[in-house]
Amino acid sequence: MTPIVVHRLRLQGEQDVFFLRARGREVARAVGLDTQDQIRVAVALSDIGRAVLVGSASVTVVFQVESTPWGAFRVDLSWQGAPPTPVEQAGWETARRLMDEVDSQDKDGTRGITLRKRFPVDLPPMGEDYLTRLRTQLAKLTRGSPLDEMRVQNDELLLTLDRLERHQGELVRLNEELEETNTGVVALYGELTAELEQTNRGVVALYGELEDRSRQLKDANEAKARFWSNISHELRTPINSVIGLTRLLLGPGASPLDAEQRQQVSMIADSGETLLSLVHELLDIAKAESGKLEPHPADTDLKDLFGQLRGTLAPLVPSDAVALVVDDPPAPAVVVTDETLLSRILRNLVSNGLKFTESGQVRLTADHHDGVWRFRVTDTGIGIPEHEQERVFEEFHQVPNPLQARSGGTGLGLPYARRLTEILGGQLRLDSTLGRGTRVVVEIPDGAGMELTR
């Protein structure tokens, strides 16, 4: 948009420098600039005027208002030829510091300078009626004497000095506050440093204690593994002897036993088998913790495996109120894994479900997706409280419940199943609702990265 002219002057000679300064300040005040900006405009025009109004030089001054791209007060000075004093050396730097923009032009022998001072952002727009009244008002201004301008300059100087004095006082106060704050910061820094040093000493001591505890825990785990391994080996021989003797007593070539004796010997045999199974689990757990239990992957037919589980677990069904359901796996039901370890995992989970289910069913299912076999053992048993669902994976931990006396158990089944699952490269998850049942999901990768054992 074309700048709007609000006032125009024709100046000639050095005597008009004061007039240029005074009129610049008056027009700046009329268009809405604040006091500080009025003084900046006046000083900039005064310094530029001293350079261009030399001798009898004639200068045209046009005061304008720009509305785009931002509102600005614009002053154009133009003259013919070059002034005796180069503008770039006299007044130019002062004007640059005080005004937002200072440009020079030189075209066809006419030289000029343009100065701009942006309006405050909260200055309302100037309508045509306002600009008309502004032009009329400025046209009525009279030329003041140099003495009057000197008096105004003195007033401006006193005003500036007063403001500087107030600012100086404020700076002194702020410096005192800053010094006081710095003193507090230094003291606080000293306190924090002392606390940090004390904390570091505590952390070092705690770290040393944790190392000692870790070493003790490692030694305890190794001792426990050795103990289980030794006990398992020591117990296996006498238990096998007991089982062998019961088989001899119950065999066809043994002396006849009456019904009560046969029942008692059978109970001894069952207890021996249970104890032998527990010894095997303890030995496997010891091997797993020591890293010596390694899987031997091979092609495993899940249909055959599920059939074996269906037959061997059927005698564990506690009553006719409980149904054991083993669904056939989807074809092709072949997974590359350690069949023995997988069988132990599923047998433990299903037998665990049968122990704690009074009515309903215990179901074993399997499905295959994205190279992973998922085995789900779901029961409608008594369930596990939420706060106990992680603790059931601690060795020898048993959840107190009314069926505990009937079910027996050692608290090793779930920890044992989880360790074997991890050895097979899988994971075991448990989800249970008290009074509604439990679901255990075992995810086993389909032989990824495993070398087959033939």
UniProtKB/TrEMBL annotation:
Principal cellular location given in the protein's record: membrane
Catalytic activity: ATP + protein L-histidine = ADP + protein N-phospho-L-histidine
Protein keywords: Coiled coil, Kinase, Phosphoprotein, Transferase, Two-component regulatory system
EC number: 2.7.13.3
The protein's name in its UniProt record: histidine kinase
Family matches, as PROSITE patterns: HIS_KIN
One family name in Pfam for this protein: HisKA
Domain (Histidine kinase) ranges: 230-448
Coiled coil location: 147-184
Organism: Kibdelosporangium phytohabitans
Compartments reported by the entry: Cell membrane
GO annotations of cellular component type: plasma membrane
GO molecular function: phosphorelay sensor kinase activity
Enzyme class of the recorded protein, top EC level: transferase
Record bears the keyword Transferase: yes
